[in-house]
């Protein structure tokens, strides 16, 4: 089992796509039952271990509980079979099918044992958080999204194409293999769909006005995968959104600017959790 801050990951089984799959999860500070539960949703090539110690750092700083997971196809979760190709709606399916199935299994949600969660999503995980909050407006207390995608920009496609070349030509594959049981499943599932011309149709604008919960949207000024249009678009359609634009920060604010991000996220979650006021 992968370890972090003295905690181990475990596998839970959920229904998805007409079958049973296993999802790798890790609990942080579960004994703090009265505190907010923050669910961490990783990036397109991420996993529990790819977060490193950031979820533990945030949860310690805010006295939060945490749930970190590896999505289907990532980490120690069930790998995506090689012939299975993700569709343009792959993030919608994660947000509307896989995540609710996991929450049902773990008794997370309104009126359930572990209560309503806060979602903390990075990149593709940020998009999944937005879709989930829009699709189930009463199911979450709020969301924090780091470098989310609400549309496909030329910059994103160019950088993802460069990542493909790095995977084929450099040691990127071996580095990622430390974090995934089936690294090719993780990489090609993500890379193939992002570079598919059909994926240009991906657009979350029609959903954003359905988000009712508080939103903290974070973008680095030097993000190589997206521009400020991503988070500014969220604010335009969900005006309760608070924007955090970080200087000297690329696509991973939790690695490039962990201090300012942690301070902002703790303040935001605390301020918008009614029983903490």
From TrEMBL:
GO molecular function list? hydrolase activity
Q: In this record, what's one Pfam family?
A: Abhydrolase_6
What InterPro entries does the record point to? AB_hydrolase_1, AB_hydrolase_fold
What keywords would UniProt list here? Hydrolase
UniProt entry tagged with the keyword Hydrolase: yes
**Residue ranges annotated for the AB hydrolase-1 domain, each copy included:** 38-261
Superkingdom: Bacteria
Q: Has the keyword Mitochondrion been applied to this entry? A: no
Q: Which PANTHER family does UniProt cross-reference here?
A: ALPHA_BETA-HYDROLASES SUPERFAMILY PROTEIN, HYDROLASE
What's the protein name? Benzoate degradation ring-cleavage hydrolase
- Per the UniProt record, the source organism is Cupriavidus basilensis
Record lineage: Bacteria, Pseudomonadati, Pseudomonadota, Betaproteobacteria, Burkholderiales
